[in-house]
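If your schedule permits, I should be very grateful for your opinion on a structural question. I would ask you to consider whether the tokens describe a fold that such a sequence might reasonably adopt. Thank you for your consideration; the sequence and its tokens are set out here.
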Amino acid sequence: MFIRKQQVFLLLTFTVCVGVIIVINTQHMNLIFQTEVHQRGFIRYVNNSIKTSYMPNKIHYVCAGTTGRLGNQLYVFASSYGIAKRSGMKLVVGLNPDTLSQTFQIEGAFETDWGLCEASKFINANKCCQVANQVYKVRLNSTVHIFGYLQSYKYFTEYNEEIRKYLTFKDPILRTAKTKLNTLLTKKYGKNYRNRTLIGIHIRRGDYLRKGKQQFGYKVPSEDYFYKAQQYMEKRYKNITYLACSNDIIWTKNTFRGQRDVIVVPTGSAAVDLALLSLLHHMIMSVGTYGFWAAWFINGTTVYYKNFTLPNSDFAREFDKDKLDAIPPHWIGF
């Protein structure tokens, strides 16, 4: 069959799990991809125009799309980075929304051309917070698209130092966080705060108190947990100032009312407040991915709430028996 020199357009549409529209101009060999992926609540839209040829591509990729808010997106990036490195593959991340690239100096950590993932094979990490063997080290000799929340530090812990280089806060965010922290401490102590031991307290309540989440198995710590965590820190450190970040400011103020050395941080953007917490020395967590990443950035002593799932609940079954895939062994549980 002969093909004339006029432009020829080929339209292919797949509508089950992946919808791909490809327009081919045979004169200039330009491909335009628009990809929409639906699976388990993950939706990716990536538009790219690239020049290509029909030369076989021997490079294989680990493809991952970000989802959720900042804490979830950090997990997807860090875990898929570790999986790609361990498997000797390159990483492609579909940034939508592009919170990571706006927050961190992450350029060069991955490709963003979703066209590289066109012929990928799908692999599911079925449990949010357990290591999936089929994902931990990909053994397929092809490009793979990983679905899942990938919320285990074990996916990436051996590459922490590389990941920390990419997860450097952008200068405007870091400057804003430093100014906010300095203002809070100066208001509290004047200029004599330089010798303080700064400990972050992250308190997530809000959506965790909704009926649906409670039925699924989410739990939040009581005041007693935070008091015990403070007692532990005060046995180890002196001249402590606690900086409490929360999505429930009223509850937080009531809980720490009367404690002179607790500063309740006014709510700012997720990126700025995470950067502020990263400047501290140690961490008291409550629940949620945001608290995990605050502790990871601080990299000091971390106290965590160990009873954060209702026993025998659907949420509890997302974790391994002792939650060792989700909680680093050197963290202190109360």
Notes: Residues 1-56 have pLDDT under 50 and may be disordered. The two ends are 73 Å apart (CA to CA). Residues 56-166 form one domain.
